[in-house]
Amino acid sequence: MDFKKYIRDVEDFPKKGIVFKDITPLLQNNLAIKAVSQELLESIGDQEVNKVVGMESRGFFFAPWLATRLNAGFVPVRKAGKLPFNKISESYALEYGEDTLEMHADGILKGEKVVIHDDVLATGGTASAVCRLVEKLGGEIVQCNFLIELDFLKGREQLEEYNVRSLLHY
């Protein structure tokens, strides 16, 4: 299936000069969402996985589904101040400033095998911050898994030490 036909370009969002890759048309089509889900699962293969970590907010669409299919738990990563329990945090650089992500401190146990999932790999800042969170808790990252990779932003370079899989490349 040609998934790219379900990805809508939105010019100048969230700010002028950015072409946002909108996945909501894909999410609205039952055949496309089933096929994407299956391909994301197949990209993981038969690796042992204990937890799937998904990033706020669009990483939440597929990560819990992957977790159930892998007989693994799901761990959400959210922006600062959104999680209600004991948490760890990791700050990372943005184009203008800094942002912070948080994960529950009991989300990953030492030695657990982890897949990190998000919808888009852009500059790699978010994904590398999540990798650091997982590793702070003693998790072993077996794969970083993305629906879309924006190759021209070279985010993969920040994840060189990890197994990175993306279904679509732009």
Automatic annotation (TrEMBL):
User: Chief localization class?
Assistant: cytoplasm
- Cited Pfam families: Pribosyltran
According to its UniProt record, the EC number is 2.4.2.7
Tree of life domain: Bacteria
Q: Which reaction does it catalyse?
A: AMP + diphosphate = 5-phospho-alpha-D-ribose 1-diphosphate + adenine
| Gene Ontology annotations of biological process type | adenine salvage; AMP salvage; purine ribonucleoside salvage
Name the InterPro entries on file: Ade_phspho_trans, PRTase-like, PRTase_dom, UPRTase/APRTase
What family, per the record?
Answer: Belongs to the purine/pyrimidine phosphoribosyltransferase family.
Q: Which NCBIfam families match?
A: apt, PRK02304.1-3, PRK02304.1-5
Name the job this protein performs. Catalyzes a salvage reaction resulting in the formation of AMP, that is energically less costly than de novo synthesis.
Protein's name in the database: Adenine phosphoribosyltransferase
Query: Which species is this record about?
Result: Saonia flava
